[in-house]
Write a structure and sequence with these properties.
Elements (H helix, E strand, L loop, with lengths): L1 H18 L29 H18 L2 H43 L3 H19 L3 H4 L7 H25 L2 E4 L13 E7 L9 E6 L1 E4 L2 E4 L1 E6 L3
Parallel strand pairs: 2-6
Antiparallel strand pairs: 1-4, 3-6, 4-5
Helix pairs in contact: 4-6
């Protein structure tokens, strides 16, 4: 009996406890306020132009000091090689120019070594030519050559042969005689010297029609200009 009573009391007590409302303890929720903290603007420092140049020069100096010494030496050697090559090429060019100039001078000295002698010789050739011109052509063409005429013709032939041999020998050494009136050449002031001018209806102006003194050339250079008469119609 006692046991039953205890069980009943315990059940009644349990039902009372269950019927008692439980309080819910609500935790307070804290929300942080949106507070924007303004950051102070960062201060900017601007370097002046001298300071910038100083920093740049210091940076270049540091970079130059940091270069490899072997690289510096190699660059110096390459520069020296370029300078030596340029000097070599200039020396070769100057030497070749000297060779060409010396060659021309030697050839000129060789070609005109007898120039003074040739100038003195042309006067004798002129006298020989004048001697041949003194013999009249009709006597040379006479059908009968007797006595003095035969001797004159023989003398003329001897002088003519001597002149031919002399001119052939001089030609071997570059000395040549020219007569512009033979082919009626145009007057050339570089080779001819006009002593007089005259009108001629059957010839063109500036044509050489008479040679008073024949000219001479030494290796293509005029040694003495020919003295000529020139046609002048206008």
């Amino acid at each position: 009996m006692i046991q039953r009573a205890i069980i009943r009391q315990s059940r009644a007590l349990g039902s009372c406890v269950r019927s008692t409302p439980t309080r819910s303890l609500a935790r307070p929720q804290f929300r942080p306020a949106n507070i924007s903290l303004a950051r102070p603007a960062a201060a900017r420092w601007y370097a002046t132009e001298p300071e910038a140049e100083a920093k740049k020069s210091e940076g270049d100096k540091v970079a130059a000091e940091a270069e490899d010494p072997v690289k510096k030496e190699l660059e110096a050697k390459n520069k020296e090689i370029i300078e030596l090559k340029d000097r070599y090429l200039r020396s070769v060019a100057e030497f070749r120019n000297l060779q060409e100039r010396t060659k021309r001078d030697m050839q000129s000295a060789k070609d005109f070594a007898i120039q003074k002698f040739a100038k003195d010789l042309v006067e004798s050739i002129d006298n020989l030519d004048r001697a041949l011109l003194t013999v009249p052509e009709e006597k040379l063409k006479a059908p009968e050559k007797t006595g003095d005429l035969q001797d004159l013709v023989a003398l003329y032939d001897g002088l003519k042969m001597t002149e031919g041999i002399l001119m052939s020998t001089l030609k071997k050494h570059g000395l040549e005689r020219f007569d512009p009136s033979v082919e009626g050449e145009k007057f050339n002031p570089n080779e001819h010297e006009a002593t007089f001018m005259t009108p001629m209806a059957d010839k063109e102006d500036n044509t050489v029609f008479l040679t008073q003194q024949k000219g001479f050339k030494l290796n293509g250079r005029v040694l003495r200009a020919a003295k000529v008469g020139v046609v002048k119609n206008s």
